[in-house]
Amino acid sequence: MPTVTGLSPEVLAKYQPVIGLEVHVQLLTRSKAFCGCKNEYGGEPNTHVCPVCLGLPGALPVLNKQAVEFAVLAAKAIGCEIREISIFSRKNYFYPDSPKGYQISQFDKPIAEHGALIIPDAEGNDKRIGITRLHMEEDAGKSLHDGFADSATRTYIDLNRCGTPLIEIVSEPDLRTPDEAFEYLTKLKEILLYTGVSDCNMEEGSLRCDANVSVMLKSDFTERGAAAYGTKAEVKNVNSFRYIRAALEYEIERQIGVIEDGGRVVQESRLWNNAEGRTFSMRSKEQAHDYRYFPEPDLPPLVVGAEWQKQILAAMPELPEARRARLIADYGLSAQDAATLTAEQAFADRFELAAKAAKSPKRVAAILLSEITMRLRAAGIEFEQSPVTLDGIVAAADLAEANAISSKQLKQLLDTCFAEGRDFLYIYDRDKPQQISDTSAIEAMIDEVIAANPAQVAQFKGGKRTVAAFFVGQVMRVSKGQANPALLNELVVKKLDA
Ligand code: ADP
Ligand code: MG
Ligand code: ZN
């Protein structure tokens, strides 16, 4: 990896990076966290607002039940314990897009704590990343710095986002490399998407990450927890996992450079500039007491008792890891195929529907993962727009499994489906691909190929039986893909052994 700061790999290797992530996730509730306003991305600026989310004097917040349920579901999905009585607190700070002058958040008694995610480390081994807490809070509005004729001199405010329910998920400082941070975020997003509590759309800001990072001489480092690590800087609101990785790579080297120059890293918030590939200082970080947290007097303690928890957890779907294990066990898939199929819940659902209807789930996986995915990608469309439906995939898989079509014919049929925008069975019935199942006709073609390839025949006779596949391929070509594959396989071996 080229260094971004010109430090030598030897110098970089002397230091141990420590990373902890704070992830904010917008919840997909119908209304906002503490009022009845629509919780929806976009809209005419300042139209989804009311006295509560505008912070007008005298307006009182009422907690959204669905937001609590989503928070509990997400918390349980990442292994957290639910606190039966949690407390909302005011986090006081002024920001132009936050008209109340404080944010309703949770402080010392968050709704959930002590979770963990398992990620693969650099060697592919499981590594446990602790999750300190998951707490509920509300989002702020947006300051619009560009896009207006007078943007050079003015900032506009859109308060539609004010009061959108958030969960904040805080990791322990257990991550050691930018790659591990990337893996953690990927896992976290995958799980949250499965629970359905958020769309996790990073472009629209539904999932946002602040990355905390410090470095320390390896000679001084032991795994002792945050208090014993170096001074951290925080990179705010980076809007893609890849940029977060790049920002961390840069920030680690910047901090090492500061220390190597005899300086000290200062605790601060920094911004990532992707165009320049650097982070910039934004503001020195407030200490926790600067927020003057105190319990929110307008909201009672939140009680999530055992009975309510049970009701909420009834909606817990099968999570990605469990689903992967089940797909391997139930359908005999490889770990790699199971991982690809379960990366998105809808994709896994689709596979299972087809797999249940078809004769061979493995054949369905193969067609879905290669033939269909490849053609969708080439056409630049999603499965929802695919001309070949799930029924089409089942039909194709069954025909291929029964050797009624060769793999070449399957590819040709699918090409035609995508070219004409028609489903598989329509094209299959119309084009009725010819299949040669006449033994003597196939034998004649095999003889022809055997005569033309004496070297390969010798190899086969010499004991290299895998060469049979070469002859099958050649005859398939001669037959323009029309030879019955099962019959062909059988006859080739018979002829070669004769
Ligand atoms: P703050 O009060 O400054 O927000 P927290 O203790 O709440 O700090 O931690 C915020 C995040 O920073 C957590 O994800 C935590 O794991 C991480 N973190 C804490 N100390 C360090 C450190 N020395 N280096 C890197 N990350 C850290
Ligand atoms: Mg914090
Ligand atoms: Zn409102």
The stretches of 5 or more residues where confidence is low (pLDDT under 50) are none
Determine the fraction of residues in helical runs and give it as a percent range.
40-55%
Mean pLDDT: 92
- Spatial strand sequence of the major β-sheet: 2-6-7-10-1-11-12-13-14
Distance N terminus to C terminus?
58 Å
Number of strands: 16
Q: What proportion strand? A: 15-25%
What about the largest sheet?
A: 9 strands, mixed
Seen as an oligomer or otherwise, the chain set is: single chain
What would you call the shape? elongated
Number of helical segments with 4 or more residues: 17
What does this structure look like?
The protein contains 17 helices and 16 strands. The strands form 4 sheets. A 9-stranded mixed sheet has the order 2-6-7-10-1-11-12-13-14. Strands 5-4-15 form a 3-stranded antiparallel sheet, with no helix packed on it. Strands 3-16 form a two-stranded antiparallel ribbon. Strand 12, helix 5 and strand 13 (268-273) form a beta-alpha-beta unit. With 498 residues, it is of the alpha+beta class. The chain starts with 8 loop residues before the first helix and ends with a helix. It folds into 3 domains: 9-310, no CATH class; 329-431, no CATH class; 439-497, Arc Repressor Mutant, subunit A. It has helices at 9-13, 51-54, 65-77, 178-195, 241-260, 306-313, 320-331, 335-342, 345-357, 361-379, 390-401, 407-420, 424-431, 439-452, 454-461, 468-478, 485-497; strands at 15-26, 81-82, 85-86, 88-92, 102-106, 112-120, 126-138, 142-144, 156-158, 165-171, 207-217, 233-238, 268-273, 278-284, 294-295, 302-303. Helix content is 40%, strand content 19%. The structure holds adenosine-5'-diphosphate, magnesium ion and zinc ion (ZN).
